[in-house]
Amino acid sequence: MDSTPVNWEALDALIIDFVSSENLVVEEDTCANSSQSPLSSPSSPSISSSSYHARLIIRRIRNSIESGDIEAAMDIIRSNAPFVLDDHRILFRLQKQKFIELLRKGTHEDRVAAINCLRTSVAPCALDAYPEAYEEFKHVLLALIYDKNDQTSPVANEWAEKRRYEMAGLMSSVLRASLQAYDPVFSMTLRYLISIHKGFCFHQGISSAVSDLTHRLLLEERDPPATPPESMYEAPPFDEVDIQALAHAVELTRQGAVDSMKFAKGDLFQAFQNELCRMQLDVSVLDELVKEYCIYRGIVDSEMQMITGAAKRSQSEVGHRLSRDCSSEIDLNTSQHSDVENYSSNSMLNGALVNDTEMSSKQGGDVDTRYGSERTSGCEDCSTSWSNHCETTRALARIRSHMNFERNKRKRWRGRADEMDCLPDLSFPKSESGINPIDDKYEIALAVKELVSRGMAAEAANEISTMDPDFFTQNPGLHFHLKQVEFLKLVSAGDHNGALKVACSHLGPLAASDQYLLKTLKETLLVLLQPDGNTHGNDLPLNDLANSLQVSVGNRLGIKEPQLMKIIKATVHTHTEWFKLQMCKDRFSKLLKIDSLKEMNTDLVGAIKSRSNKDSNANFSSQVTTTSSSTMTSEDGGSSSLMMMTQTSSREALWEESAILKVMEFLALPRSDAIQLLSQYNGNAEAVIQQLFG
Known about the structure:
This is CTLH domain-containing protein. By secondary structure, the protein is mainly α. 60% of the residues lie in helices and 2% in strands.
């Protein structure tokens, strides 16, 4: 599962949308424009969308109901969604719960208020809420004479606090759909992928390497489903294909899927979103996973980076001393902020997440200034190992000098706190050089990735070899592909002699020990035969190679791969395997951007050929998928997948869709099992049903 290729750029886009939609980040320029004093009053985060505002309202209502304050919840509903209370079924349940909560307080005044609530609210609603409501009303009257601590009483279930959570979940389901306040796409995608992953592992009897995380992230509890409007009780029949797709996608009974379709007024995708959002995620665990991923990918800076950046601006003399001496010490005496202290000492994932102080990142402009005048002889006695801080900081300055590096524009993590200072008064641990050496390691991995993404493969290879001469010995596949990029760029520039030198010096020796690389080398050399100007070497699909290099360099630097990456790789893999078993396509894959996560363009030679074919209609030999040993799918794997799809299509074509659906509906079977049964009875659905029921 860990070798499953994933389009990390697509995941980056989902994550950025998630943190922006949930207001988890703050733009750095927002902090810059705020008051310079760290003691100034913080400004509340701006609400970026009506959906975010609606989700906040739902959270407030949910929290109020879960804490037993039903009246406060109803006041919020009246102010923001009064039409919800027009449904007397919902109003009756809220009033009944309000009666119980008043009794629970135990004072004489509250008991009087509870009886008054019965007279003025609960009883009138019970008359026309739903057929069973009046019986429920009479039953709840028993709470007046039975104690809340009596577990044997006939109304023990009415006293149970879980009723609060059921009511809170029901209101969340109703309000979410009514206000169109769905969670960000990434949140729904993660729920869906994890639920399929769990189901696949259970049905196949295999263990999951990420089971601990997935069980803590996706909870077993679900919010109660919203009941469809009374006008939909006699709804026209829905397409059985839609019903079965929804039922199997979110693990519903057929009747549950029908009810969900009724509530969504026949809209399959809205019903699907309603059901996904009923699944409960542990938001605190999710936020920590996302934060770790964002820091690893360079999307956000940690709190510690924000502090170090502010401290560096006020202590420029320390920076000058740093450039002269690799072992200088500084002591910044500021007070420690509790958020950073708590996060640094207590990871929410019990050590699974990297310490925040180890993941803070440097701002490019500051690094360029600090090391711009550094003498080459300043650290003559320093070795070139990854662990040597002096060498890594010098390497970081060299790499950024290649890129004409712009000032860092990363966002700052804010979290879900209502208010936060832009420049909190914090301190951070001393380092022998005045900066955290782990910061530079993260920046090295990110900078190398950026080099390759910009097509500067030769520069990346040279810097890596300088820092760790053994790196490419242990990663020959990555070395080959970097040199392949260098070769293709030289051919694109018309420097065929230079390209041949790269092939002779590097590509040939590397391919000699690997038959697959040798085949790739042959295809690469064919580019020399293309007309000048048609190679497009400056527009190669390099993102996957860059990401592979970041992971490998990070591993050598001792940087752990984010847990979220492991979850996504495992769940995307099982998603693919699950729908192979189901012998059908996932109807919701595009909606949740899962297709984008699987879109991998790693074929460097093929990319050049396809562009040349458009320009000159030239026909070349078979397209080759170039891969790195760590992330890409082999040509054989691709052929096997194509064969599997062909076989699946041919098997499905043998039987009519109506026969497949009939067996699925009557026997409550997955699609794959229905197809296998039909295969035993020559596609005769009636024979299958008669045999099993007879």
